[in-house]
Each structure stands twice: as C-alpha cells, then as structure tokens.
Design a protein that fits this description.
Distance between the termini: 33 Å
Order of helices and strands: HEHEHHHHHHHHHHHH
Shape: globular
Radius of gyration: 22 Å
C-alpha cells in the first residue's frame, strides 16, 4: 500500500462509461449542434478511487448545528494546530477504502447487503460472453475481412446505443437524422477516442480464433481505452503493448509506449527537457 501511495499519489482515471458518455455528447454537438443532455466536463484524473465510478470521493465536513457543508472552510482552519489535518484524514480514508473491510467486519457487512462477489461474477460473465462470441458468432470470413466494422457495430449496440438514443431524444431527433446508411453509423464509435481504442484492441484480440479470453483481457482493454487516448505515456506489459502498437493506436493517439523502465525514464527526461 505504501509503495502504491508513493508511485501513484493515489490518483485515478475517470470511469470508462462516463468518458464514453462525454465523448458521444461532444461528437453529437459537433455533428448536429445543440447540447442534448448537457453533461458537464470533469477531471480525467481524480484523487479518490470513487472517481473511477463517476463519484467525487473525498470527505465532507458537515456542521452539526446547521447541517451545512463546511468542508471548504474546514480545509482553511487548522485542527489542533495541524493545517493539513483534513488532507491527512482523507489520505487515511483512501487507504482504508483500497484495503477493504477487515475479516472481522465481513459478517456484519454481509448482513447489510455486502456482496463483493457479484461484481466479480458480473465481470466474469462478460468474459464468457466474449468467448462465446469468438467461438460461435465470429466467422472466419469476418476475421479475415471487415472485423473492424463488425466490432464497431457490436460496440455501438452493446455500449453506446442507450446513451445515443437518450441524447437524440433530448435533441428531438432519431437515428435517421444522424446517419442514412451503415457506414455512417460505424463512423460514430470510431470517431470517439476511447471507443476507437476499445474497438481497436478487441479487433487485435479477436483476430486469433484460438484465443482463450480471461478476466484480465477485459480489464486491460478497459484501462487502455482510457489511458492511450488521454495520457502522454502508457507503460504496460509486453503483450498488451504489442496489441496497441500492432493496431497503430499509439501513433493515432500520439501516445508513448515504452518497452522497459529504462525506456520510460528516457521518455520522461526528453519530455521534461522539451
């Protein structure tokens, strides 16, 4: 935990669904005008793990007499002579959040609905769906031909269609108002940076008909879909790096992908000297 603290300063990328939603809104704003649902901007990097789930995170200080939020004022007022007391308390809370509950707390938490296995089961079910799609629905013809189009259409129907319909409904429009034929629909996810990387990586993985999909594969794809388009440098393992480079996503997004810690150090030195 202390090593993670030192290396990352407990900073987290935003949640992928929130980024998809904002990218889609920006694309529609550019294509057809208006504001649709009017989602506001947010920081890509946040200081709490909750930031990755679309929440602000951090501690709030509430006045017990008035019920008002006085967090900003509390940050400016020393507590017992310590001006950084709230930041230190938030740091401690973040570590507790990452560590999770103690074994002695599990039974009480479960009595109140705590079911961490449901999230793991949901993720693993998505892996099984991906494997079934690869084994039974993807033909050899598609793998050798328009695999990008197939997976762009699948991403649109699985990940984006609900938020797209809601955006269009808010603007008083329908799908026919933004696209007249299939190719125009397929341009939508490929015009959104995170979606383009998400689809591009799945294309690389699905080219291998014998691939056995794992939980880590979906974790990697989701993480890289955020990091590659929005970070200057992405340092990942060799197999994932190879998929990104083979797809040309590093060049398309102008992202450095060092091969080793030494390469990473060289890139950092060059960027800092520029």
């Amino acid at each position: 935990m202390e090593l993670i603290d030192e290396l990352t300063d407990f900073e987290y990328l935003a949640g992928l669904p929130e980024v998809f939603r904002l990218e889609l809104q920006a694309l529609l704003d550019e294509k057809i005008g208006g504001r649709g649902l009017g989602w506001g901007s947010f920081d890509l990097v946040g200081k709490s793990m909750l930031h990755g789930f679309g929440k602000k995170g951090g501690l709030r200080v509430i006045d017990q007499d008035t019920g008002n939020d006085v967090t900003d004022r509390a940050r400016e007022e020393p507590h017992r002579g310590d001006p950084d007391w709230l930041s230190k308390l938030e740091r401690r809370a973040e570590k507790e959040l990452l560590a999770g509950p103690r074994d002695s707390e599990i039974s009480t938490l479960r009595a109140n609905g705590f079911q961490p296995e449901r999230s793991r089961e949901s993720h693993h079910n998505n892996v099984l769906i991906e494997q079934y799609f690869a084994d039974h629905l993807l033909s050899r013809h598609w793998r050798k031909g328009r695999l990008l189009d197939v997976l762009a259409a699948r991403h649109l129907s699985l990940e984006l269609i609900d938020m797209l319909n809601l955006e269009l409904m808010t603007r008083g429009m329908t799908l026919s108002d933004i696209a007249e034929h299939t190719d125009q629909f397929l341009e939508l996810p490929l015009s959104m940076p995170a979606s383009a990387v998400f689809v591009g990586l799945k294309v690389q993985y699905h080219r291998d008909a014998n691939r056995l999909w794992t939980d880590n594969d979906l974790h990697d794809i989701a993480a890289l879909a955020l990091a590659v388009p929005y970070c200057d440098i992405v340092f990942t393992d060799a197999s994932v790096r190879n998929a990104v480079v083979t797809a040309g996503l590093d060049k398309a997004m102008n992202t450095h992908l060092p091969r080793s810690p030494a390469d990473l150090a060289d890139i950092l030195e060059r960027l800092l000297a520029a």
